[in-house]
Design goal:
The structure is a single chain. The mean pLDDT is about 90. It contains 18 helices and 8 strands. The protein has a 4-stranded mixed sheet with strand order 1-2-6-3. It has about 475 residues and is of the alpha+beta class. Bound molecules: protoporphyrin IX containing FE and (3beta)-3-hydroxypregn-5-EN-20-one. This is Steroid 17-alpha-hydroxylase/17,20 lyase.
Length: about 475
Amino acid sequence: MATGTALGRPRSLPALPLVGSLLQLAGHPQLHLRLWRLQGHYGSLYALWMGSHYVVVVNSYRHAREVLLKKGKDFAGRPRTVTTDLLSRGGKDIAFASYGPLWKFQRKLVHTALSMFGEGSLALERIICREAASLCETLSAAQDTALDMAPELTRAVTNVVCSLCFNSSYRRGDPEFEAMLEYSQGIVDTVAKESLVDIFPWLQVFPNKDLALLKKCLQVRDQLLLQKFTEHKEAFCGDTVKDLMDALLQVRLSAENSSPPEPGLELTDDHLLMTVGDIFGAGVETTTTVLKWAVLYLLHYPEIQRKIQEEMDHKIGLVRHPHLSDRPLLPYLEATISEVLRIRPVSPLLIPHVSLADTSIGEYSIPKGARVIINLWSVHHDEKEWEKPEEFNPGRFLDERGQHIHSPSPSYLPFGAGIRVCLGKVLAKMELFLFLAWVLQRFTLECPEDQPLPSLEGKFGVVLQVQKFQVKARLREAWRAAS
Ligand code: HEM
Ligand code: PLO
């Protein structure tokens, strides 16, 4: 911060007493787009009021880098809202927990467990490939008929996370899986939408349809989590750690045995449940959403799909399945995944951050307790950083010879950055690569003849959702001939 000169506050949208700037935002369900467009009038960094909360909106990479990386610690807090408090039992998870020693401890535990079971281990590759094979079988069985791929993609991804968290998986049509699909959709539809309830907590006393649905869905989720927790507790002997749930139980057991217990680091049952709930929820909804966007873009751009398949035929062939070690061989597929993550960021406003001290962004002063929204949509669609940002062009992520992948602009943060960076980045990238490689080696994905091309417009929420669409998965002639 400059010494001696007092910094001013960012320009603010007009605000009325009580409702704040709600009038400028109401009637615009696509909040990321509204905040992106408001830059035209207020500049790339501006402030607004959500009820009594002071909110700063960051739309440029330069400022996003300052918040997430250079002053990461100043901005590592999270707001408490009615809906995320319900989801996480008052912030006992990782994603919606305030910055503090317990949050740090939980993050570290999960990070260690994920690297132990997953990232870099052959076991995880085997699990993903098992699910990819099962997905391909389902697509084969549905050959040439119009199919909603969403539940199939969700089951494949869920089973990977389920294996990691609980060492279990679901079969097609499993009623527990159907229940999970339903409650998770209910949560995605209602949580963290900066809905009225989150702006005015006192509205909780009135009946609210969204809040009622969220509570009902959370009941189902809690039952399911508790059942897994109890089964694990009963079977746990302390020696063999099969999954994340066991790993958390083991850490707690050793903490209980060490006396005196470390102050501030006591993991209650709620902390364990909410941590697993986070990884399960984040693991399923994010990766599935990216896969749906990828399939949708491939329907719109058959020439890009063909190019991926040509690259695969050339580098891997049709005799063996794709492996993780093939990633450097398939830069065009990797570039396509990167471009999907740019053009339709799963988390277009990240999760809101909160300033933990009086601080600054650029030439503006930011008071302690401000909510800071990083508009990733703006960062990924900034015309000063990206040529024709609205164009889907995987080539922009390739070097001149098309052999190596690189980002042409630093203005690219699909997983966030810094202290609160996504915990599942490595896992997600492994899944996206293997699932897409397996499917595209065998099938060409097409829009059913009798249907218009589905819309590329997302639906804003805690993740940027894809509208429902159908696909025809046609077995490739080359694959048929080879097998
Ligand atoms: C946080 C993106 C997959 C677990 C985040 C954030 C983003 C993000 C943007 C917020 C960063 C911030 O607030 O500054 C993505 C994308 C994914 C993905 C694009 C898929 C392509 C996953 C997976 C897991 C996961 C598979 C779990 C295994 C988490 C957790 C947080 C998080 C726990 C909260 C971190 C914290 O607050 O400390 N992710 N994510 N994510 N992600 Fe992911
Ligand atoms: C998705 C619905 C689940 O039922 C619960 C859940 C838990 C963690 C959340 C996730 C939901 C949405 C995506 C989130 C994730 C934590 C990190 C991730 C917000 C609500 C992202 C992309 O930031």
